[in-house]
Amino acid sequence: MAVMVDSQGRVSVRKAARTLGWRPGVPVELTIADNVLRLSEAKSSSAGCIGVTAVIDRRGRVQIPYGVRRLVGLAPGLAAVELTTVNHQLVLVPAAGLILAPGSNETA
Question: For the chain, which residues make up each domain, given as ranges?
Fold first, then answer.
């Protein structure tokens, strides 16, 4: 599903969050690997894990911090593809990073 980054750096994840059982107010951890942004439910740890977290707002949006957006290549007005995975994560891939099949507007 394609989602847009708004002018405040927010991305609507309502449908995927509902599928994953995440409700508004749920903190999510943001991790980056291979220009892909992964969101997973933040684990409360007494070990004091340091990382970037965001919260799902009442409209089902997550505000991605500027530095994270810049590292991944997400800019306001840019589309991203939202994918849910079996390991209880939400994956955002910048649309510019997708490979298109030759002569097609569909992703390969």
Answer: 2-96
Q: Where do the DSSP E strands lie in the chain?
A: 2-4, 10-12, 27-33, 36-41, 52-55, 61-63, 79-85, 89-94
Q: Is the pLDDT of residue 3 over 80?
A: yes
**pTM for this prediction:** 0.75
Separation CA 23–CA 79 (nearest Å): 23
CATH of domain 2-96: 3.40.1550.20
For 18, the token pair is 């509902």
Q: Is the predicted pLDDT of residue 93 greater than 90, yes or no?
A: no
CA distances, 14 to each of 1, 53, 62 (Å): 11, 17, 9
